[in-house]
Each structure stands twice: as structure tokens, then as C-alpha cells.
Structures
1.
Amino acid sequence: MVDQGPFYHRDRSWHPPAFTPNYKTSVLRSPQQALLSLDNTISEMTGPVFGHDRIGPLDNDLLRNFAKTGDPIGQRIVVYGRVLDENGRPVPGALLEFWQANAGGRYRHKKETYLAAIDPNFGGCGRTITDEDGRYWFRTVKPGAYPWPNGVNDWRPAHIHFSVFGHAFAQRLITQMYFEGDPMIWQDPIVMTIPDKAGIEQLIAALDRQNTLPMDALAYKFDIVLRGRRSTMFENRMEGN
Amino acid sequence: MVQKLGFLKESPSQTAGPYVHIGTNPNWVEITGVWKEDLGLVLVAPETKGERVIIKGHVYDGAGDPLKDALIEIWQADAEGLYNSPQERRGRADPHFVGWGRQPADGTTGEYRFETIKPGRVPYSDGRLMAPHITFWIVARGINTGLHTRMYFSDEEAANAECPVLGRIAHKARVPTLIATRGEENGLPTYTFDIHLQGEKETVFFDI
């Protein structure tokens, strides 16, 4: 059964390590002791599931869900993709939440003081739930690059944050999506926390001219992969564990 | 060359960043009108079965300062030890208890706080019972991959002593980092669970 086995262990050499000193905040926020490896228990192999009834009609439309007087200013884009597991199987019913800066790189957050202007018609948050084939999409404006106090002249590449719920707490993931062709990706200390170039490339959405809407919005494709489950073929496990 | 196994790689994690609340708690950062309420703030309804408890604490960095931008999620069983999840095969969980909560640390003090119920015991993979526990997941600026840990209860000494997961911790001096201290607030049992990311009192984090 696809839905029952324990998860493949997380490849910690593929994910960023905790201590990445070029990203300065990680220095005091990284555990120094080794993680305790634990075979999955039912506490991690289960997780919350959210019904489609939680989602409002504009939740995946950042062009409209905060609009007061008109559309936000910026490059109109559609972001779409699939949520899959490591076995390549779709993950239906996955809640995705996303957030981003506006076209000028300004976040709508009370602690944010960057001088680029707030857009009165842009909130910057959205969410959706994948369909039975694991597909999702939303529309928004392309976020701008954003300066941050790390090095004296560090800028984040254009990015959209994603929070993903699969079917189990062990699959819980937060990541960031970057845009094809952005030269700043390779200069960013947060991107560069990922050790493997192929891992970084996995977070770069591809410009998709086929699905671009003529005279309306560019399309970017961004697939997300969550941990897959081991089949239980050689294990004598109690049902449900 | 041999046959390709054909597995995909998991999408690499990235930090949630300082503005995670825009996506997870928009109302809390005054982005109102997009959705009615932030997800995960309320765990308990009047119909929920079980003993009401408050879980609170701080997340501290390696300098001993509380994180004021952390986001904490919890996942737990109901009062009978059943999870409200399609993967739960042992029975049907309390329909009035989702078992998942999410709270931002307070922007001024760094305190987080959940009002929930005390979970029942659930079995380890070999069938032995684990002690009552709540699974925690912590993200924040500066944390590249979300941190998993567990909270246990100080008034469950016997169960804690036989918990197979706590038994896996080789350095026994680190076991107390997972045990929340019981107190009382307005007649409700309160458990304080402080999480130390780094240093002398570093919390045990799991690779699960």
C-alpha cells in the first residue's frame, strides 16, 4: 500500500545543513548536537489533512485576493506544477501556502521597513490544495529582488516561499521557488546553503511559453517533491504502524 | 551501467524567513480580508474530549535570546491516543479534534502558547506504548530545515521511563530537554516547554 509504509529517510546531504555561516542568522540558530535518528512511528507517519472546503475562490489569486482599487502593479504570472513523492506518484489533497514580496521587492509585514513602496492592491499570500493528480496553480505578480542585512550588499533573488503539507507530519516542508535565468540565484547565501547544484536547480521554476496566456500572463512551472513511502514487503509490521 | 532506480529527489528545504507569517498567519500581520482566520490557532472545541492543558514556552538561540519570529506547529493524538489522519488504521479519532496547531512566537516576548488537550498514549513500531507526547516542528529565519522534536509531560514519570523513544537517547542527561514542566494557570494545568536551538541546554532534535 502506497499510503502505509514508513518514509524514505531524508537525504541530509541534499538538504542544506543547519550551520551555514554565510547565511549569518544560521550561526546561532543551528543545533550543534547530532540529530537523533528515529525510525518512523505513527506520530510522524500521520498528519493533518485539510478539506477543499477550507479554500475560498480567490485564495489562489494574488491578483485579486487583496485588491482594493484595481490590480496590483507588476509582471502578471501564473505558477503551476504538481506535488509528487519520491516514487513519482502524485500527492493529491496537499495544502500549499505561498507568500512573497510585491513587484518592487517589498513585503507587507509589520516588521519590514524596506523603502520600496507597498502596493495597495497586493497582499502577498495565497493557498491552494492539489487535485487528484497532484496539480496546483495560482496567479500573482512576479516578485522583485529584495535587499537584506546579511552582507553589506546582499540581495535575495526573486522568490516565492512555499509551505507544503503532504499526508504525514514527516513530509512537512518549507522551501522557496526561484525563476529561470535569474543571475542573482547563484550569488545568494540562502540559495547557496544547498550543497548540490542539482538541488538548487530543483528549486528553479521553468518559464513555460506553451502555457503562457497570450496578452495576459507568463507561466512558470514548479514541481515539488515530498518524501516517498517504502513498501512494507519485507517487514512484519503491525497493521497501522 | 546498472538499471536506474528512478526515484525523484525531495525538494530541498529553505528557510521560512522572517516573514513566514504572511503566508501562514496573514491576519496576525494585519493582512486582513484574504482569509477569515489563520489556520491552526484553535485546537479545542467545547465537544472535544480530554483534559484541557496549556502548552507554552520560548525558543532560544545559542546566545540565550528568545526567537521573536519563530513559527511553531504541533501534531498530537486525541485523548484516546488516536490520530485524526487517513493513515490512522487503529480506530476513529475524536471528530472534534484535528490534533494540529500552529502559533507564531509573540513578536515582543517570543512566547508561544497552545491551548489543547493532553494526548493519550500511542504505540511505537514494535507495539510497546510510547509516553504521551506532542510532536513539534519549528521553523524560523536562520533555520534552513524545519526542526522536529517532541514534548513529554513531567507528571508522566512512569510512562516516560518506559518510552522506547526516550530510551533511544544515548546521553541520559539530554532526556530532560524534552520534558515540559507542569504548573498551573487559572486552574488549568500548564506545561512549559522551552526549546534551546544550541548550546548547553540544547534540545534533542530528531531526524525522523
2.
Amino acid sequence: MNQNNVILNTLTYVVFFMIFLFSIHIFLAGHFAPGGGFVGGLLMASGLLLLYVTFDLETVRKMLPINYSILVAIGLLFALGTASIGLVAGDAFFTHYFNHFQLPLLGDSELHTAMLFDTGVYLVVVGVTMMIIESIGGDQ
Amino acid sequence: MIKAVLGLALLFFSITIVICLYRAIKGPTLPDRVIALDTIGVNLLSMVAIISLLQETTAYLEVILILGILSFIGTIAFSKFIERGVIIERKSDR
């Protein structure tokens, strides 16, 4: 049965990048606004799910050759490494540090090590969700 | 005045959701139920927008966009299930 879904394909090309940018926005705005790593990761996973629904499993694996279990491991390493910064610096476990920096394009911006922990949460949520979806949708 | 108008709009949206809920429960075929759930999602995010106007906060604006994205992806997945019988294909014959 040869059906071509041109409308869905063309829509996915546009909507996937909108979902991607919105997930990045929610992830970066999590410190001062609603959002954060968990919601951003779930939104990124839903964008990837849109790719899986529009195309098929092998095409998406060819487009994005990501091993999601390695992604989960990298996220957990980010979380553990951020927690261990305090140990190296002589403070308690999970001590966070922040300071103001003059970035070239953004100007005066406040960088916080909780951001790195949030990156770990983001990667773990994306990885676990995509592992569940791939292992359920993989076999027929 | 504006609060009364917004409350009236909330009332109308809830009536619409009740009507769509009737169609989602009673609907004779599966596509009727999917369309009803999609309409419920759209009305729900309109209600969130009106509630954020009533409470005079901008904290709910992300909720509106996320609800729109989730409703869209859910409807796409349901319609693919109705059309093909499977949501994620292993290898499509294109």
C-alpha cells in the first residue's frame, strides 16, 4: 500500500524545529521562570516522537544515530560531576556556585553550576523516554 | 466589566467541552472520538489563556504552547493508528 503523506512530512520539517527551539528555551529559562530540565527533556522527546511517527524507525536512526543508553550515562555523569565540584573545592557535597560574567554577545549574565545539573536531568529524561519508545515501538 | 466578559467566555468554553465530551463518549466511530478529544484540547488551552488573563500572570504561557504541541502529536499518533494500524513503523515502503 503506497500512501504518500506529503502534508504530514512538510509539517514535520517545520514543527520539529519549533518544538526543538521551544524545548531549549524552556530548559534555559528554568531558573527564573516555569520550566527546567524535566519539562524541556520531555518536550524534546515529544519532538523526536513526532519524527518517529512521521518517518519510520530506520530512517530516524539513520538521521540521528544516537545511542540513548549512552545519553543516559552522560546525563548521570553530568549530575554526579556537578555534585562533586564541592568536594574538590573543599565544601560539602552538592555545593553550588554562581557568579556574574561578561559574555561577548549576551552581556552581563549569571552563570550557575545548577545549570550543569539541569543538563544532566535533560539528557537523562530524553534518553530514558526515547529508550522506552524505541523498545516498545521497535518490534511488531 | 472585563472580568464578567472573561467569566462568560470561560462558561462558554466549558459548555463546548461538555458537548465535545458527549461526542467523545457517545461517538459511534473512533475518528469521532479523536476529533472530539482534539477539540477538547484546543478549548482547554483557550481556557488556560483566559485564566491567565483573570489571574494577571504570564506564568501559564508555556502551558498553552506545550498543550498545543501535545494535542497535535496525540492527534497525529491517533490518526496514524487509525490509518495504518501501527504508530511507529519499522520500515515504511516508500
3.
Amino acid sequence: MTAPETAAGTAAPRSTPVPAAAALALGDDALVLSHRLGEWAGHAPVLEEEVALANIALDLLGQARVLLSMAGDEDELAYLREERAFRNLQLVEQPNGDFAHTIVRQLFFSTYQHLLHTELAAGDGPFAPLAAKTVKEVAYHRDHAEQWTLRLGDGTEESHARMRRACAALWRFSGEMFQPVEGVDVDEERLEAAWLASVEDVLRRATLSVPEGPRSGAWAAGAGRQGLHTESFGRMLAEMQHLHRSHPGASW
Amino acid sequence: MATAAAQQTASTQTYGAAGAVGDTTAYQRVFDAAVAADERIEPRDWMPDAYRATLVRQIAQHAHSEIIGMQPEANWITRAPSLRRKAILMAKVQDEAGHGLYLYSAAETLGTGRDELLDKLHSGRQKYSSIFNYPTLTWADVGAIGWLVDGAAITNQVPLCRCSYGPYARAMVRICKEESFHQRQGYELLLALSKGTPEQHAMAQDAVDRWWWPSLMMFGPPDDESAHSAQSMAWKIKRHSNDELRQRFVDICVPQAESLGLTLPDPELRWNEERGHHDFGPIDWTEFKEVLKGNGPCNEQRITQRRRAHDEGAWVREAAAAHAAKHSADRHTADRHTADKHTAAKHTGETGAARA
């Protein structure tokens, strides 16, 4: 809501350059994952998780609003871009699936986000002030995902099997988190090594093994960051944007 | 219930079950005196079985209403038209889950369990508020629910903050604070629509037209047909009659509707100078009874979704329990090792004392 930019996310550099491409990429991650978690409302396996999932979704939505506002008008960017203009990771747009899929997606993403925001908070780039605040939220998200990974991996035979399937299904989306994003000043290799070490450790403690197979197929590598998404994403956007688009120019 | 409570607890412990029959009248007298003196009844106090049963029923149904009530609003989370509205709605639905948790805890102080209560909800043996059997058809319904449904709930619930049962009264204090906030947000949502484009205004008016009468039904049947009212008022669980609260709500809403620039769908609604209240048209009690019987627009859908969430989540709850069982054994073993090493004798003594 800060600057009158176009919705395309191709803003020209300003006098104090806000890295719009980077703000969009990180903002879209938060926006899309928040939306997916919002779909759980009223469907969670236990009341405490209604509270927890909504809580995480709200934190992410708050982050998305700040980040998108750094790149332009938050509502224009959220509601009026088409699929090919979104820059989020394919990981976060994956459908919720069962609770195990949701938890593995959370484990992969919140571990990445916590490591990333810790680095950003320590630096002096444009995202440092935001990251200094969000790192606390994200630490909670990561803890929530880790605790559930332990419970489900090392729970019953069924929960173990579901977690194994979820890890296998989502593993191939985990590589694109470490593709460089223009304007995000971090050492991707170091981030990736730390991520792998952490996720491997949690999975091992949860009696799960690290999936085999590629972490980024030829198609998936960095594709979300380039606006190449998976098929369910268009449907998600159709639902998210429908009302806003039906009333052009209206305010809410 | 300071002094009376202490006496009761003491006498219960002294005489135990053996003295119970003979002492019931005495207990009843202490209870009646506490209620008369506006003292709070607490979980360990003696209370009449019927008082306990009434509270379990009322608190459980209140908790169920919070949980089922998440559905009509959650229906719009993924379609909220701005990020600000989406955040507000998500926070509200999260609060409702939290209210459900407080209320189940309050019910548990009466000797029941959340699992048992949920089971009664899922099997239709306990009810939830009839209002949540109406569908949310447009975005404006989210505002109408905030303004009217939460408004009616607050009118009902503020007096419950003084309810004679302590845990329920304290839960209501916390809940009412959050509900008032939601209600203002709902009003503000409708105001934005009412002052927006003609299409938005029409959407707001249509929502108010559909939610007005069901909101008035939230206060329950008329006083002369309300089965539990007299006893609940005598016990100070309830402080005002259904019709009294309904009238209060109508009187509050009329000026609010005017400032919203919206009308209420009742041609008989008008100020009565003599009574100092608004007169309003007759409520369709046939519709109310049908909805209560399970024949409302969404009864089937609401309970099916609730059951499905519960059933599909069973493996998650089982996994959490299995994990906790494995690891509490681990912790127990670890504790014992530590205890053996350092303070074996003392530890045994403490365990013995705790058991006795």
C-alpha cells in the first residue's frame, strides 16, 4: 500500500532501490502458503490445530502484506496478477493433502524460512527490519512443524506411512528454495547445507529416512520463481481472486 | 463462594459418601444460600445434580456453537476480497476455535470430557445454535454475522459473565471481550459495503434481510414456551428472560441499521413511545422448530463436515497419543535413572506421599 506501482511486478528501480522482485518472491511465498493453511479452517484433526494452523496462516499473511506493500499495492498484487506473474515457490502452492502432507510442507518451508530470516535479520539489507520481527514467528512455525513431524513419524504405523508418502511427494519441490533470488542477499549454498542438516536430523529423530530422488527436476528447478507453476495453482487463484475481480475498483 | 465453599468442602471431606444422603438437605441449604448471596459456585462445591446437568448441557452446546460456527465464516476465508479483510476473518475464526477450547474446559470442570461432548455433538445428542444452519451466500454475510449474530450472542452472553457457576462466568468474560471486537468489525465491514458501489450496497442489504430473523431466533422460544428458563433464572445461570433479551437486541439494532444506511426486513418495526421500546413483527416459530429438528438449510452439511474432520483426523490423534505414550515412558525411565543416582530414598518417599 506504499507505492503506486503496476501490478506486473516489473517496477523500474527507484532512487532508494527496494528490490521489488525479491519482495514479490518472498511475499508470494507467504501469501500462497497462508492461503493454503486458511483452507484448513474448520477441517483440522483437533481443535488445538484449528488454532495453530490459523495462527501460522495469519503470521504469514501479515508477512505477505508487508512484503507485497514493498513491491506495490498489496491488493492489486494479490488479486489482479495472473498465474504467470506469481513468483512463489511451487512447494507452497501444493495442495494441503492429508495432515501429513501439510506438516511436511510446513517442515520444509518453515526450516528454510527460519534460516533465511535469521540471515536477513543479521544483515543490513532492505529486509532486515522485517526479518528481525518475523524470525520470532517463523521460529514458532518451525517448532510446530518439527514437533508434529516427530509425533507423526514416530507415532503409529499408519502415521509413519503417511509421513513417508508426504516426504516422498514433496521432496522434489525442496530444491528450488535454494535457487538465487535477485535482491535477496544470502549465501544459498550455506543455507541449503544448513537446511539439509536440519531436515535430515528431524526426519531421523522421527524415524523417517530422507527421501531419495532429485530435489529439483529439470522442470521444477526455480520454476515457481519464474512464474511457472503447477496445475492446482490456477484453481487456487481463481477462488482467491474471484470476488475482488468481480467488482473492479470497489473498496472493501 | 468463600465461606460457604469452605464449609462444604470441609464437610464433604469429613463425612464422605456415607453421610451424603442425610446431609443433602444441609448441602442444598448452603448451595441455595450461596446462590441467593450472588456467590460463585466452584467445581469442588456441592451442587444439585440438575444444576450440574443443566450447566453441562448449556456450556457444551455453547462450545459446540463456537466450533460449528467456524464453518459459515471459514467458507469465505479463501475468497475474502482484500488482504486486510482476510486477516480479520482468519483471526476471528481462530478466536472461535479458542472460545470452543475455553468452553470445553469449563464444561470439564463439571466432570465430563471433551471427547464425550464431541461424541454427543457428532451423534446429534447435543445441539448447537440454530443460527449456524444458515448458509453464507455472499461476502456481505460475513459482515451480517459479525453485526447481527455476534451482536445477539453478546446480548445473550454479557449477563452470563455474572452467572452463578464460576468457571463459566470467567470464560464468558474473556469471550465477550473478543466477541465485541468481532461485532464492531462486522459492523465496519457492512458499513464499507453500504457506502460502496450500488452492487456492494445491495449485497449488504440482501445479507441483512436474510440474517435478521434468524438472529432474533437466537434468543430462543418466547418466555411462555421456554422449558428451562424459570429454573435457570432461579439458579442465576440465566439473568434475563428470552423475550427481554430479544427486545434489548432489537432496540440496539434499530439505530445501528439507520447509521449503516440499511433497512431491517420488518414492516411492523416501529418505536412505541408508551413502552419505550420498539415493537416488532411476529417471528416464524415454525421455521425455528424445523431448523432445531435438523431441517434447516445447512444442518446436514454442518454436522457432516464436523464428523468428517473428526474422523479423518483420527489417525493424527492416535499418532499423537502413541508418540506421547512412547516418550512419556522414555522420560519416566530417564527420571528414574536420575532419581536412582541422586536421591533414591527421597524420591520413593515423595512418590508414596503423592499416592496417598
